[in-house]
Amino acid sequence: MLRTLAGNLPFHPLRGALQAFGLLNYTFPLNPATLAAALLGRRNYLFENSSLRRFLERILPIRALDETLIPLSVLTADVRTGRPVVLSREPALPAVLASTAIPALYPTVTIGDRVLMDGGVADLTTLDYAVDAGADEAYLLAPGFSCHLPAAPSTAIAMALHGYNLLSEQRISASIRQNRRRTRLHVLPPLCPVEVLPVDFRGTADMIERATLSTAHWLERREPHPRLARPLCPPHDEDHRPRRPG
After folding, report:
1. Are 190 and 233 in contact (CB under 8 A)?
2. Are strands 137-141 and 184-188 parallel, antiparallel or unpaired?
3. Judgement on whether residues 155 and 227 belong to the same structural domain of the protein
4. Which segments in the chain show pLDDT lower than 70?
5. pTM, whole model, 2 decimals?
6. What domain count does the chain have?
7. pLDDT tens-digit profile of 54-113?
8. Does 14 fall in a domain?
9. Bridge pairing between strands 109-111 and 84-87
């Protein structure tokens, strides 16, 4: 009822209040108690993952990762060592939660005797793992990255996520360059422009539609859509690196 009312208000004054208390923000629900505990050093994360957990419980079609018809692996990182941990037989729900546990934002997940977090901080990408495992052909569906932002992020959380995304893009680009000669690699170009930050989900439906059009264009012509996408790793991007004088 409150969500319906907030969505129908012209300037959404109630929406802001509900979002502040985590009643509308499903992905990063701001809970005052959790935030206070984090500021006091009693939590190492800012947001609970309970909403994400409930969502995954509804949509995950498997209970364990090894129940899929096509072998599935999930990349995480060991909190204590920083080393990559690839999950392929563990329960699906905690594995996915661990792979989305962005440091300091979401709680870590304990599986067995290991404390795990988002695999994006490890020194191995999913592409590296696939090629090392013997894949002779790989399709890389790159995650979305903010592109051509109209302004710099205005909040600490938005800036942190933006920086994390930029670092992830650089790591994936480096992995593409490293593995191009090791396998037949197909990289689907990400959307651009993407003038929203990772914390803003208001344009999700529009981005899905644009991504569908962009991917169809790429599958037909094997080139980025001129108005919707960009190459993730340009073939001559190394030419733009700073060079030492002389």
Report:
1. no
2. parallel
3. yes
4. 1-26, 143-144, 199, 233-246
5. 0.76
6. 2
7. 989 999 999 999 999 998 999 999 999 999 999 999 999 999 999 999 999 899 999 999
8. no
9. unpaired
